[in-house]
Sequence to fold (228 residues):
Amino acid sequence: MNKPKQLTFPWNKFNRSTLDGFYISDQNSHLISLLKDSNFLDDLYIYGTKESGKTFLLQAMCNFYNLNKKSSVYIPLKKALDYGVDIFEALEDIDLICLDGIEEIITEIEWEKAIFNLINKSLISGCRLILTSSKDLNSLNFTLPDLESRIRKIQSFELFPIDDKDIIDALMHISKLTSINLGDKEAKYLVTYSKRNITNLVHILESLDQLSMEMKRKITIPLIKEVI
Fold:
């Protein structure tokens, strides 16, 4: 059977997420090293706050598998709830399934059963599962006890958000990776006068890059003031 490299769903869109593009703090270094290790194929349960980068990592893993000619699928469960559980049909035949936001299906018994069955089928087929959640394992409260029991057997890691002390380093890391010319002085100004989370800062950085190209101007503090 020929496997597709990356399955397409209504919520899929091109993204440039890469594992190298994820700023690695000391707290997250072990988890990221495991994700980068092609010989480590265990299932994972990753939990963390909204701004910790869970979605970025899942999309980066799908791109990583795609580059290595392996099949993958990314499913944000909050959006998937608008579709039937049939989206899980035969998914266990691919190499990697990334389920984002497992807490979204708590008390949705039809979805709980579907994911329980998917986990069982994946154990047989050898498909790898990576699940994310805003809740740690002890805070889950599924209606289906068997599902909770299955998920508790998966290795669990917390994904920590970027500390304030690392936010400038993270921003500079991303700007260099994306070839955006951002000076130290401009980075400090941006962090000082913007909402201090990396998602917001990256959106501003992308807007600055677009505006600087359109206006043929360098990214300066006056230009930053126009955007923020």
In short: The longest helix spans residues 198-215.
